[in-house]
Amino acid sequence: MEHPNLVYKIVDTNLINLQIAEQPLSQLDAKDGFIHLSTARQTQNTLLRYFQAHSQVTVLKIDLHAVRDQVKWEQVNLVDSDGNHVVEDFPHIYGPLRTEYISEVAFVHKVVDKKDNSSRWIFPTNFLM
């Protein structure tokens, strides 16, 4: 399976500081020993699964060409929105998240549908590729 060259790191907006050489680890990344990333296709579900308590997050676009030697694609067992068990490959960085790996940054907002209380995240046009 061919993997994309662009992946995404979702972070609490308060954690990001592009003026430093390495970005701080999230609690989950520190606990697991690697940096969790998502592909463009996986990003919306990652947000719905792990960031429901947030109304805004920062999404970092990472060019894997810059960090390829530290990335492992690992299979993760998930349950999709229909209750089916699926296995997906997720990219993980085993090493620091250097600011130089970040090619673009987006502030992403959650919109909640008042009719059914469902939510979705709004990205800038052409950010997810």
Question: What features would you describe in this structure?
Answer:
16% of the residues are buried. Helices cover 13% and strands 41% of the residues. It has 2 helices and 9 strands, in the order E-E-H-E-H-E-E-E-E-E-E. It has a single domain (6-122), classed as Alpha-Beta Barrel (ADP-ribosylation fold), CATH 3.20.170. By secondary structure, the chain is mainly beta. The mean pLDDT is 92. This is DUF952 domain-containing protein.
Q: At CATH's second level, what is the architecture?
A: Alpha-Beta Barrel
Q: CATH first level: which class?
A: Alpha Beta
- Strand portion: 35-45%
Q: Total strand count, please?
A: 9
Radius of gyration, in angstroms, nearest whole number: 15 Å
The overall pLDDT, averaged over residues, is 92
Helix content: 10-25%
Look at the structure and name the CATH superfamily: Protein of unknown function DUF952
